[in-house]
Amino acid sequence: MHPPRPTILDVAQRARVSVGTVSNVLNGTIRVGEQRRLRVLKAIEDLGYSQNLLAQGLRKRRSTMVGLCVPHTSNAYFAALVNIFEEIASDRGFELLQVLSRQDPKKEFERVQALLRYNVGGLILVPSLAPDNTLKLIAQSGTPLVVVDRPVRPERYDQVTFDNRSAMLEATRRLIALGHRHIHFIVRQKALLVTRHRIEGLVEAARKAPAKVTTAVFECADEVSLTAHLSTELRKAYPPSAIIVSNSIFAAWTLRALHTLKVNYPGDVSLLAFDEPEWADLVTPRLSVVRQPTDAIARRAWEFLIRRMTHEFDGAQREQLKAEVIFRESIEPVTRRAR
Amino acid sequence: MHPPRPTILDVAQRARVSVGTVSNVLNGTIRVGEQRRLRVLKAIEDLGYSQNLLAQGLRKRRSTMVGLCVPHTSNAYFAALVNIFEEIASDRGFELLQVLSRQDPKKEFERVQALLRYNVGGLILVPSLAPDNTLKLIAQSGTPLVVVDRPVRPERYDQVTFDNRSAMLEATRRLIALGHRHIHFIVRQKALLVTRHRIEGLVEAARKAPAKVTTAVFECADEVSLTAHLSTELRKAYPPSAIIVSNSIFAAWTLRALHTLKVNYPGDVSLLAFDEPEWADLVTPRLSVVRQPTDAIARRAWEFLIRRMTHEFDGAQREQLKAEVIFRESIEPVTRRAR
DNA sequence: CTGAAAGCGCTTACAG
DNA sequence: CTGAAAGCGCTTACAG
Q1: Beta strands at A270-274 and B95-100: parallel, antiparallel or unpaired
Q2: Which nucleotides in chain D have some atom under 7 angstroms from a protein Cβ?
Q3: Within this chain, do residues A288 and A298 fall inside the same structural domain, yes or no?
Q4: CB-contacted nucleotides of strand C (7 Å)
Q5: Is the CB of B92 under 7 A from strand C?
Q6: Statement to judge: residues B18 and B101 lie in one domain
Q7: Extended beta strands in chain A, E state
Q8: What's the rounded Cα separation, in Å, for the pair A327 and A304?
Q9: Which residue of B has its CA nearest to A258?
Q10: Is residue B182 domain-shared with residue B285, that is, in the same domain?
Q11: What residue numbers bound the domain in which A29 lies?
Q12: Do B142 and A1 touch (CB under 8 A)?
């Protein structure tokens, strides 16, 4: 019913050349005589030929697909990353084979394993909390890898991350300058390296503050526990005047909780969120955020990957980009009354 | 440096069987003697063998990858779709080769073409505004296809969409019941089939209303023109008391515009949006929405695709799912004063 | 520069 | 049930 796709052999026959010659004009590695070249081009045009990339990948032992493994797509930041990667990849003649680890190290391992079965030419990984096995698997396969967003221990991996410590340092410092003396940081996983770096910044800013500043870090798994936590803390005699949350999902939950609890927000409590959600400046008051340099991260990661794929570079490539701390109406100075 | 991946030949030799036998235990099509089967399994285990899916795809002339083409990922609804598709696909042993059309028919064509070069086993397409060439291309290739979300003309394609007409009918009816008599609908493209169906619902509800109801449809391309439009219309002697926007991006723009224009919202004008954005119930007042049955759409689409891939079904498969109309605080009844 | 041929790692008739 | 062999559509040394 459907005519089979023309192959390189069809092109060769129509152009009266060998398949090797067709391959050479296609890949442009070796110069082909002008007349034959034109004949081949014409044949390709006539037949509507396009390469079978499965065959090419098999023969070259590496496909033009790049594997992309992110925790999920519901986070606006990850979605933006995928968006940029797809653009870069397609411009460069690559396709994205995308899998989701759903924050689960075991699933991450399996999904990456699936990617490797396709001999992907490269791999971009936003690691889960415990990516060690996955990293080992990738290293064994010899597949070029770049780790994005969340730094990972062995220093030998190519990584592009952003500087969580200094972003948090700056944010906290500015909160303190506005009179905040009791700051809570709500996180998903204390053990996560990203989180640890943020806590370092938080603690350092508090330590260096001109006044006494109390900080606390809380782990939350879901909306219920987060709401419960806020409910308890905000009713204490000495409640936090500022809350920092580690991602945009938590920001959403917190907003809902503050509403439910009928907290005077942002009058009594200020809010700052990592991971700028797209709705940050749609809500009232507009949400203050730490904005990751998504675009720069993606572009640099791709650069690293290409260099690794073409063996242009040997040593570990690492780069830490600066994040932008943006205070908006969700943060207010602490008035004497509120203290 | 990196030991090459073991091949089926390595497994065969270690298990002292032929490669065909290994293939048979792997694919389970033909029964293999128990002892050999165990030997093969052991060899696979020992070697850490996994199939080269590029080779398999080449030989079978169809890979276990499914192409997914959506307009972009920044829309929460599309992101959710991708999320579900990835889950289903990976559970079934498929990978997702994802491309973005960026709403551009030409880019859509090129990106789908790229997908076809990999001999994807199936294709899921959320079509652009003018997908005809792309659809033709896919049809020619004989690749199983299911069109999602936006219905498309030739009735022969498998499609799972949702019922825009009846969703709009219900929404408008309810607005009218709340006293709204002048309703504006802001869209991206009047020509889009989805839009036309919505307009049908709008017009029908108005026609059947117990009182005289005026409706109007406006096309908008960007935030500036949308803001200008609202500015003009809301200052007229007989301004709309309710605005319906056709997607979540427009909802965001409208919200900003209402704020800028210092409109008494939702007192003087109510707002309803198609495409539930994730921030819908974070804003104040909470946004009223028409919620697509994302999960059901994805699952049904996958079902259609598998059936098509396994040739279990011949005729065109079509399903139209019901959307949910959710009124929240962004919609208020019209008071006599306001009329 | 060009062609003939080997081979990438699988699956699938085809004999036995 | 099992093995030997052809072939999927390419690329890449290898001669010439």
Answers
A1: unpaired
A2: 1-5, 7-13
A3: no
A4: 1-5, 7-13
A5: no
A6: no
A7: 65-70, 95-100, 122-125, 145-149, 158-162, 182-187, 214-219, 242-245, 270-274, 288-291, 318-321, 324-326
A8: 32
A9: B282
A10: yes
A11: 8-51
A12: yes
Cβ atoms of A245 and A254 closer than 8 Å: yes
Residue A18 CB lies within 7 Å of the nucleic strand C = yes
How distant is C1' of D10 from CA of B56, in Å? 14
B84 in the same domain as B150: yes
Cβ–Cβ gap A142/B63 under 8 Å? no
Number of domains comprising chain A: 3
Q: Which of B57, B83, B140 has its CB closest to that of A54?
A: B57
Place of tokens 């009232």: A284
Residues of A in contact with B83 (CB under 8 A): 72-74, 100
Domain of B17: which CATH number? 1.10.260.40
Confidence of residue B338 (pLDDT cuts 50, 70, 90): very low
Q: Which two tokens stand for residue B329?
A: 């605080």
- Scanning residues 49 through 68 of protein chain B, those with a beta carbon under 7 Å from any atom of strand C turn out to be 49, 51-52, 55-56, 58-60
Q: How far apart are the first and last CA of chain B?
A: 79
Domain of B233, CATH number, reads 3.40.50.2300
Q: pLDDT, tens digit, for every residue of A219-251?
A: 998 999 999 999 999 999 999 999 999 988 899
Query: Looking at the C1' of nucleotide D7, which residue has the nearest alpha carbon?
Result: B59
Whether residue A38 is contained in a domain is answered as: yes
CA distances from B274 to B59, B104, B190, B194, B327 (A): 45, 21, 15, 11, 12
Residues of chain B found within 8 Å of residue A51, distances taken between Cβ atoms: 117
Which residue, counting CA atoms, is nearest to the C1' of nucleotide C8? A59
Who contacts A75 (Cβ-Cβ below 8 Å, separation ≥6)? A247, A248, A249, A275
Asked if B51 CB < 7 A from strand D, the reply is: no
The size of chain A, in residues, is 339
Contact: A73, B79; criterion CB under 8 Å: yes
Q: Are B103 and B76 part of one and the same domain? A: yes
Between CA B52 and C1' D11 the distance (Å) reads 18
CB-based contact, B114 to chain A, within 8 Å: yes
Q: Which position has the token pair 């008391």?
A: B241
**Model confidence pLDDT, tens digit, residues B227-248:** 999 999 999 999 999 999 998 8
Same domain, B121 and B222: no
Q: Are residues A190 and A273 in the same domain?
A: yes
B328 found inside a domain: no
CA proximity to A141, closest of A82, A78, A197, A67: A67
Whether the full predicted model's pTM is greater than 0.85, yes or no, is yes
Are B198 and B152 in the same domain? no
Residue B72 lies in a domain: yes
* Range A156-176 burial, b when 16+ CB lie within 10 A, else e: ebbbbbbbbbbbbbbbbbbbb
**pLDDT tens digits in sequence order for chain A, 339 residues long:** 577 889 999 999 999 999 999 999 998 777 888 888 999 999 999 999 999 999 999 999 999 999 999 998 877 788 889 999 999 999 999 999 999 999 899 999 999 999 999 999 999 999 998 999 999 999 999 999 999 998 888 778 999 999 999 999 999 999 999 999 999 999 998 988 889 999 999 999 999 999 999 999 999 989 999 999 999 999 999 999 999 999 888 999 999 999 899 999 999 999 999 988 878 988 889 999 999 999 999 999 999 999 999 877 778 999 999 999 999 999 999 975 444
Examine residue A58 and state whether it is found in any structural domain, yes or no. no
